[in-house]
Amino acid sequence: MVQIIWKLLVLILYVTLAFVSWLLWRFYIKPVIVRSRYRKHKNVFMGKGFYTPILGDFLQVKKNLENDEYLFNHLIQDGINSSKARFQNRGTDKYENEKDIQLIQFGDSLRISAISTKAVDELNKIPTTICDRTQSEFHALERAAPKSFTIVRTNQNWKKRREAFVRSMKLNYVSKNIPMVMKALEDKVATWKEGQEINFSDEMKEVTFKVILTILFGANLFDKIEKVGYEQEDGTIVQKSIPNALNDLFHDHNSMFNHWLFLASPSIAEFLNIPIMRRNKTNRDEIYRVLRNFLKKDADKDSVYQRVMTEHGLTEEEALQDTVFFLSAGLDTTASGITSTIYLLKKYPETYQKLRKELEEAGVTKDSDFSDPEVQEAVSNCSYLYYVFKEMTRIDTPVTGSLLRVALKDFKLCEVPIPKGALVTFSFLHNHVNYEHWYEPTKFIPERFDPDHPYFNNPVDQKSRRNPTIHSPFGFGLRKCPGQVLATLETKFMVAKLVLMMDYDVAKDQLTRDHMKFSFISHHRLRITYKGML
Ligand code: HEM
Q1: Which residue windows are transmembrane per the record (predicted)?
Q2: Distance 521 CA to ligand 1 centre (A)
Q3: Which of the chain's ends, N or C, has fewer CB atoms near its CB within 10 Å?
Q4: Which residue spans within 109-262 are E strands per DSSP?
């Protein structure tokens, strides 16, 4: 008996030792080796969080959220500080070379982020046989639709599925949707009462959801979709509309990525079915159940959902997964862009006045009939409106960077070795605040997109044109966003209409604060007081 207990104790000791060694290897020794391998590359940047075992860069994200800051605030600040220092010290001994690559550590997963124009340009030229899209445990949108075409390799199946949606949704010919977009917006504003405080972010999500739903299913079926019974952290079930449920699922996935066990090992966390993982899975299944039900009953035979199956040969599961991705990608991104613009216009009253003046001079008023092609053309020709849109996508970029790629083979990016298996991405956050490419990058100045304005040029030589890679909020190449035309049109027209018709104030604490961000993954929600029609 004593011998058995002794043997058992020895076994437990060995297992514990093996486990501790494994932890040490994964979270200490391996990162130390990686760091020392990359330290000699002067163009590689490793943030503070990179040195933290297990949490890695999530430590920084966690801190930001605790301080009610935008979750990637540290990346923006890194971009501002380093480029400002370089800009000020150029031509002196203190001048430092630009960083091309940032190493990010989440748990033991190494992510390589292209953060300079040079790195992004190079990455864009790497063939998809060497680096291509992949599924990641750490991507909230992908977790919502884990089998959508957006995460498959750039192959024939991806092409077929993407084209099926682009063609069926007529994504390159979207102006016919303008009257429907305007109606969805007017209906929403009509529900607001004078003096009421509005969660503008959520309200815009409902509008953009109606829009994408109408495009996908042919009619405004918003009210027909049953509510989702969404399980909260405390176990209670709250009834939510699909856009709110998708949005909460997205944020709950982000919280799951912060869980130490998930960071340590997603597969162990999955095996142990940790509460946040179980809840996210339950909520995702519930969203799919409601959508499946709705699609079976209410999607008519001419809807995009049906046509991608009947005309383009997609399976039911492919059609559903891709629909969920389109719903998520099409509602939050555009809604956050409109929200940011409405916030920024209040923060910069001169820009607001200039925009109103441009619209009025173009003959567009709050009572204009936006289904009239002449009015549509007048709005489309408003160049300042377009600069406002572009500047919003720079300063509060709705999407922070690309979806994840994986290195399928070893390759080099800006002379830095990228090992097979590394996750690769490009980030807009550094480029969008780079002092060497933008004048006063922390300020909202739409004029910088006006070719006749001095800020249009490169601030270093004050003559040459800006590298186009510096500002590509919809991505690049084959995997570029297919919703760009729709999103641009929706945002421009909705902003024009809101600016002309709505009197509003932004909550003072938000207006006076720096670095408010309303982009896709931000937890900030814009609060406005609706003061009635202008
Ligand atoms: C302001 C709004 C939007 C912005 C800034 C934006 C930005 C982006 C970015 C940066 C990517 C990743 C590109 C890459 O990884 O190379 C992307 C992908 C994608 N976006 Fe958008 N997007 C917006 C609106 C939309 C809308 C309205 C739709 C749907 C109608 C949409 C559908 C998609 C899809 C399906 C993909 C994946 C494409 C693929 O994998 O082939 N997006 N978007």
Answers
A1: 6-29
A2: 14
A3: N
A4: 109-114, 131-133, 197-199, 228-231, 237-240
